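Weekly modeling sync, notes
Attendees: AB, CL, MP (scribe)

Item 1: holo prediction request
CL wants a bound-state model with iron/sulfur cluster before deciding which constructs to order. AB pointed out that an apo prediction alone won't tell us much about the pocket. Agreed to run with the ligand included and paste results into these notes for async review.

Input as submitted:
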Amino acid sequence: MTEPAVDTSPKTWDDVKTTTCYMCACRCGIKVYLKDGTVKYIEGNRDHPVNKGVICGKGAAGIMQHYSPARLSKPLIRVGERGAGEFREIEWEEALRTATLWLSEVRNKDPKKLAFFTGRDQSQGLTGWWATQFGTPNYAAHGGFCSVNMAAAGLYTFGGSFWEFGEPDWKYAKYFLLFGVAEDHASNPIKAGLGQLKGRGAKFVSVNPVKTGYSAIADEWIGIRPGTDGLFVAALIHELLDAQKIDAEYLLRYTNAPWLIVENPGHHDDGLFARNSSGSALVWDGNSEAPMPSLSSDANPKLMGRFVLADGRKVVTSFQLIAERFLGPEYAPDAVSGRCGVPASTIKRIAAELAHTAFSETIELDIPWTDYAGRHHEKMLGRPVAMHAMRGISAHANGFQTCRTIHILQIMLGTIDVPGGFRYKPPFPKPIPPGVKPAGKPGQVKPNTALPGPPLGFVTSPEDLLVDESGTPQRIDKAYSWEAPIAAHGLMHMVITNAAKGDPYGIDVLFMYMANMSWNSAMNVPDTIRHLTAKDDKTGEYVIPKIIYSDAYASETIHYADLILPDTTYLERWDCISLLDRPISEADGPADSIRQPVVEPDRDVRPFQTVLLDLGARLGLNGMTRADGSPRFPGGYPDYIVNHERAPGLGPLAGWRGKWGESHGRGSINPHQLERYIENGCYWFYELPDNMKYYRHVNWDYLDWATFFGFVGKTEPIIHQLYCEPLQKFRLAAQGHGRVQPPAEHKGRIAEHFDPIPFWYPPFEGEQVKQGEYPMHAITQRPMAMYHSWGSQNAWLRQILGRNWIYVHRGRAAGLGIEDGDWINVTSHHGRIKGQAKLMDGVNPDTIWTWNAIGKRSGAWGLAQGSPESKKGFLFNHLISELLPEREGGYRYSNSDPITGQAAWYNLRVKIEKAADETAISEPQFPALKRLRRAK
Amino acid sequence: MHPAYSVILFTTASGAGYGLLALLGLVGVNHGQASSIAFGVTSMVIALGLITIGLLASTLHLGHPERAWRALSQWRSSWLSREGVAAVVTYAPALLFGLVWSGLVEAPSLILPLGLVTAILAAFTVYCTGMIYASLPTIRAWAQPLTVPIYLAFALASGSALLAAISFAFGSLQLFQVIFTVAALIVLAVLKFLYWRAIDSAPKTHTMGTATGLGRIGEVRQWELPHTATNFVQSEMGYVIARRHAQKLRRFVFILFASALAAMLLALTIPALVIVAAIAVLAAAAVERWLFFAEAQHVSTLYYGAPNA
Amino acid sequence: MTSLPPPSAKKLGLVIDLDTCVGCQACATSCKEWNTQGYSAPLSDANPYGTDPSGVWLNRVHGYEVKEQGRKDSRVVHFPRSCLHCETPACVTVCPTGASYKRAEDGIVLVNPDTCIGCKLCSWACPYGAREYDQSHGVMKKCTLCVDRIYNEHLEPEDRQPACVKACPTGARHFGDLGDPNSAVSQLVAAREGFDLLPEMGYKPVNKYLPPRPRRDAFTSAPVELAKENGSSIEKLFAWADRLMGGSTKKAPAPPQEDYSGRLEG
Ligand SMILES: Nc1nc2c(c(=O)[nH]1)N[C@H]1C(S)=C(S)[C@@H](COP(=O)(O)OP(=O)(O)OC[C@H]3O[C@@H](n4cnc5c(=O)[nH]c(N)nc54)[C@H](O)[C@@H]3O)O[C@H]1N2
Ligand SMILES: Nc1nc2c(c(=O)[nH]1)N[C@H]1C(S)=C(S)[C@@H](COP(=O)(O)OP(=O)(O)OC[C@H]3O[C@@H](n4cnc5c(=O)[nH]c(N)nc54)[C@H](O)[C@@H]3O)O[C@H]1N2
Ligand code: SF4
Ligand code: SF4
Ligand code: SF4
Ligand code: SF4
Ligand code: SF4
Ligand SMILES: [Mo]
């Protein structure tokens, strides 16, 4: 018999379109195969700078997201009580008129009574600008509960950051230290990078309480106790200093290590840089034995020492103070080992390995370059030690200082933006910190008036805070107040609680986009739901009177909104991933990209950004209306993407500007810009010449170019701030200096935590719960094949992960009489849940963990009631309080980092025991949500 | 392995049918024409009826019954195909034999050759059925030397019990038949006993370590199943009956054997009991077949948490 | 042709690197995505949004914990599993219809969806659980090695590889001719001591797995410490910093000298 003939060249598609994936925030380039206008197959675009052809588990399941039965299909207005799921389908005109009415009332009265928070927003360039035009300071995206600790710590230290503003030098790194990452935003690049490292035999060390995913393939796993990385890293620094294994040249030339600091305890200038009349910081010149401006190229600065200035002021180099801090006995490996559960011998070995790699496996690239002082370098010297860190560091109340500690380690080894180290992604590096200040001070918020500046920015002294004379917060989330002075991304996790409590004030409209705030992104879900449905006893009104929400799917949060603006799916709309927002740049050069609609919506839905511009025009917001009152961007979002200019020649997209698309970065509007992007695969990537690929914080040619591109204001070196002066300014205020001082109750907290030199302090929750009562740490991890809440509606992804478990260390479980598959109770100071235990060896014994956001509320996401997601799945969020336990004086701070307001998800402390009630159902079970009508 | 009722029904019914058919063939060979047309026709109809019901049942569990005919094509390599071919081929001589033996057609000289051929083909068909299972290296409990003999013994025992019952109905039950059935039952019981001892003692040579190759590093343990949703392999191959439960059922099978035996012996005084015996044997066959699947562990279960197989 | 063809010179298959696989499931969903519209269309799902969803997948990623000899900790190994395109597979020979066959040309094992009767016997014969029956389609499904991609003239040459291989973000999956000792995959297998699954079954899998490399950690690295002179740390550091100032920064201070007690890993 002969074999059947197989068609080995079928053409199952009739068209292929490129666009950008949005199954997660990594924003890979994809090719969508279409047949008769329906999506058949999605693959990675091999030319794309982000993913270079690969695709991940989620991205390849994008089809099923697009065909999800949970897709919303028409605008909805609430007719029943909140949470009852009773809605009336309305036409867009009615929806927009309603929203305009609600919003204009607020704007006429008091714009800050609108809280506009935009979750997983990839169009913050637009939404932030919209908020500014509207005039409310109460704007932020999800950064506050996400990773602001990383962003802020980096931007206040070296002008870039882990998170998305840089990446390890996958090509040259020989030693890679990864802190607290399960997946991260750079989902595919990290995977590809790890593959590269492994291929090259580089050593990969993962510091993580859990040994799965990336950690599973690490050459060395360090199963640290949650919240103690600061100690571990400080001990590494201790070792390096003790053995003088640091890059003195790098420190002297490119950091503020030699800068002189005034030592004048008890006075207003204590701990501030000594500056000359022209305001430039000083160093002590070894040749002249006299102070000199820090940047003068002929200075021979002292790295260490105490000196006396002509005016008699005592000064010390910042490095001296830093060395004294980290050489302190409390940071010796033997001192920290017990607390972080890492053997001292391991800490010492890692330190030795770091030193060995940095100083004995040095790389030299034959690329001449010139630094800011005009010094010409024949080669680019590389210390091939790379580090990366994410939420394992950031989601702790000590995350900002811990992250700074890691940066200090990187900088002492001379590994930032050098071959083999951690590289900036343009537009970074930026001045430290970036120049923008938050708007919204008293008097800056006026009826029918735009804000004088953007609502989010970087404060450098108490004067920049958004507080009134009495120190009362001006923002609903208390960002930039004494409770979270450097809250560069706001505190989205506090908005609903604060608004419901009228603390600092009540609001009229809560306008949310793309955040499942009643469920997996809420700390303390039960109370959040209570807040969303709470009514004023007198008026019988909801305490949060109006809630507008834009979602694309039937999430848990839909049910608590009054007006729902249904969005398109990512394959149905225009988008712009802009350098003005969270860039997709590569270390080798800036990049941005677009989404184009590859299919037409089959439902009555509209792209949120277009709707937002429409509302802006209806509200008569300046930037969005012409003089004659007509809409400025009648073509909606694509119109805005092409024709909006932030500054002359600078718009959302950097590619193919100028009438003929001749210029890049800066240039006049190009009406055909989008076509050019589509021709190029929906992205723009500008590879820098080799001499601009490293040392960019001090690389003259780069800085000059970056100035033209508008990445930096002027061509100046970006000197790494080991010693963080802005923090000292807040501390001085807490010590009673300066015009703006914290209210008495906050003084102690500010004075303690705003240390200009990083230090470790125990996360709050662990300290404030009764000692020993909650012995375990509870953390979550990102599952690689699920994106927060959206994956469960996906027919394929939910087969892979349709429920979650509580992972417990096998040995510890045995001690507690817990067996594999037992149902157990997990109790925190705030609440209790029940879930099913799964035992494993690869987890820190004092730690339990679960996959994040797998638990679902019954009835949501178009899933049948009683689905495993709701009956077996659960969230740790029910256990996490958004407020810390009461302190003396009864005040409850938010469960956040005291410096940035970053939500401290991973400070959760719990106890576990076998559940008395053996019924195989997770707890708590919330009342099932009413199923919305299915999209066809 | 998941015990599919269609397959159980098929193997028990057709087993008994072929057993009966083979015996009728031999009866013909010995005695020539049936004692009466009624007797001949009835027994032939019952034999072929059981066989046909069985075959139909077996096609029921196919995804594409309408394509069943294709299964006849691969007799060169596939025991399933061979079984199909044998089953179909058997019909021809069996029908002819039925006609001449029951006396519907007068041709006494053909009874002997047709009877022999029918008996041989019937036996061969059952042999093929047994081989389908015995030839699967992936299932230790099936790849046993006793698998095929047991299939044959069951066919014989249930066939002769049936024949005895039919003979009784026609008042022509003979002592020899009782003795033969009793003998067959004893052989069957012994084989089954030896089989169970064999699979209980058969060493499990495949481990999660060899299945994943990770045994070379250390001791392998299941951590996460590929999916939280169950799949075909888990439900089809992953079906395992609890040891305790299996023991109960094994005992039950022996009880059925015993009662069949007892009934047969008592039939010497109360002949009607052969009916009870026949029913008991068929019941034993059904339960045993169910166990045959439920007790069989498939190697692929190693990937889903079984430490060894 | 249920009887196996004579062994082919060309033996196409996959090589999977267990040292690099992070268990991201990209190979699983990409496989499902391509094949549900390709040769194996459809790969059905049963009650996808119900309480008990299930579906047909040709590639699944398991997770195992392996306790290494002489260590108290275990390592997690992510383990993708699909058809291994065995050289002597019973899944082919048991098939009564000839629907299950091994291609003479390149050794790919396929099911012909037009002649399969869905008797499931082949899945019983596969030790690797690589075949999944499609209830609603009534036929058996299995990895096709993307036979409709690897030769597909409508795809760009560099895309003519299995969907799972192209997708894999870490590069843990390799596709090629394992019959050719000089092919990249064969070289890789030789260099990394690639192994067979269940070799004792005698099915001779073509696909190979590369073992996780030995770890370089506290158990395998000798303890190392940076050498330190005794004396007050801060003063030593100060003295060192001062020594650096000997020359001006125009002459860069020499990078720290190497001096270690003990072997270094990394
Ligand atoms: N326990 C615990 N909780 C956590 C975390 C944790 O680690 N542990 N992580 C925290 C972090 S870092 C984050 S960022 C948050 C994330 O949590 P969320 O910000 O809530 O993000 P998602 O759950 O992804 O859902 C956002 C909403 O966007 C909707 N959506 C999806 N696509 C679209 C679209 O195209 N248009 C519109 N309009 N809406 C869309 C989804 O339907 C969903 O309702 O979770 C936080 N919560
Ligand atoms: N597939 C997928 N990708 C995603 C997301 C998703 O939902 N799914 N979400 C996106 C979002 S919004 C974000 S913010 C990023 C977050 O990406 P990640 O930073 O990877 O976030 P997590 O998964 O929370 O990982 C935190 C890791 O830190 C570990 N950890 C917890 N506490 C500590 C500690 O104290 N020290 C150390 N060293 N480690 C610790 C945890 O075990 C976990 O492995 O991922 C993004 N990418
Ligand atoms: S990493 Fe994120 S953006 Fe990239 S393919 Fe996967 S889901 Fe899409
Ligand atoms: S895609 Fe690659 S890394 Fe991901 S699970 Fe498959 S083999 Fe492993
Ligand atoms: S893996 Fe299974 S299905 Fe694939 S060839 Fe081998 S035996 Fe056949
Ligand atoms: S299921 Fe199909 S391929 Fe498998 S053995 Fe039966 S007929 Fe052959
Ligand atoms: S080769 Fe093709 S069919 Fe086989 S597992 Fe990979 S993607 Fe699936
Ligand atoms: Mo996040």
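Recorded for review: Residues 126 and 228 of chain C are 61 Å apart (CA to CA).
Action items: CL to compare against the apo run; MP to circulate these notes.
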